[in-house]
Amino acid sequence: MKGPSKIPEGHEFIETGDGSFTLFSTSFQEACHSLAGAREETIAYYIKGCHILHKCQEFSPLNILEVGFGLGLGLLTTMEMIPSDKTCHFVSLEKDKRLLEWFCDEHRELNLKWSGQILSSSVKNFQITLLLGDGRIELPKYLESHPIKFHAIYQDAFSPKKNPTLWTKEWFTLLKDSSHGEVTLSTYSASSSIRKTLHETGWGVQNGEGFGLKRTSTRAVLNSPTNQDIESFLHRSPVKALIDEDLSLENEVLKRI
Ligand SMILES: C[S@@+](CC[C@H](N)C(=O)[O-])C[C@H]1O[C@@H](n2cnc3c(N)ncnc32)[C@H](O)[C@@H]1O
Questions:
Q1: What is the pLDDT of residues 163-208, one digit of tens each?
Q2: Rounded distance between C-alpha atoms, residue 14 and residue 32, angstroms
């Protein structure tokens, strides 16, 4: 497949198993997607994982929050999948300005325009809002003046090891408070520590489909409790829920990008 004409600074280009491409971040030392297939992974974990085709029939607009914009594959795949007679407001968070500038350049047809820290556009049935900066600060700031509730959350930060600040009790509490009662949060991670963190902040944790080498992923909802097997496993497991105060290391990475 044809890659992008330019590569954003601080990133390397990788072709993945389904022919789509992803980027490797030199700051986080991690690729944005599974090498088994970036596009297929996005469909499995987010389009199917969050029941987007069903939810867009139910909510108008369908409010989606993506945690980590990366190279914009979550947005592009969602735009492709949602029928043109259904409306969607897609909000995404990104700390790395180089990625948002690069995306704007690669996708001029979306006519994205800056207003302060926000890159936005209305294209056909889509309203796009991309917030530049640390999501922990920018999301609450945005929601203060735009009090929307999310119906679907693509929790797609880098891994809890490399990017722990977006997997904490504080973070999942903020997401809970920003969500509609019928929300579905979906993520590729099935680690016990993120499941415990979600469970302890009031999310009902369930198994999601696996993809590539992963057997399962995680879904979380607010309208039903944690699956009983998962709950007993978490109860026995010594892992601790993540909290924000011990995360000074990653904050150093975030300061540099
Ligand atoms: C796995 S990638 C996202 C891939 C993306 N969903 C896609 O489909 O292309 C994770 C992204 O989260 C961003 N990120 C990490 N920490 C962040 C933070 N505190 N606030 C906002 N964005 C952050 C990274 O810069 C990276 O681009």
A1: 999 999 999 999 999 999 999 999 999 999 999 999 999 999 999 9
A2: 10
For residue 73, give the ligand 1 atom closest to its CA: 8
Is 164 near ligand 1, meaning CB less than 6 Å away? no
Is there a domain that residue 7 lies in? no
Residue nearest to atom 11 of ligand 1 (CA): 68
Q: Are 231 and 249 in contact (CB under 8 A)?
A: no
Alpha-carbon distance 171 to 160, whole Å?
A: 12
**Residue 65 in this model has a pLDDT that exceeds 80:** yes
Domain of residue 233, CATH code: 3.40.50.150
Q: Is the CB of 32 under 6 A from ligand 1?
A: yes
Q: Is residue 12 included in any domain, yes or no?
A: no
Among the atoms of ligand 1, which is closest to the Cα of residue 154?
A: 6
| Domain membership flag for residue 119 | yes
Ligand 1 site, residue 243, Cβ cutoff 6 A: no
The answer as to whether 223 is a domain residue is yes
The one-letter amino acid code at 66 reads E
Nearest residue (CA) to ligand 1, atom 27: 70
**Residue numbers of the domain that contains 242:** 37-256
Please report the pLDDT score of residue 244 as a whole number: 84
Q: pLDDT > 70: what percent of the chain?
A: 96
Q: What single-letter DSSP state applies at residue 130? A: E
Which pair of tokens denotes residue 212?
């590539």
- Ligand 1 pocket member 70 (CB < 6 A): yes
What would the two tokens of residue 96 be? Answer: 């790395």
- Report the nearest atom of ligand 1 relative to the CA of 38: 8
State if pTM tops 0.70. Answer: yes
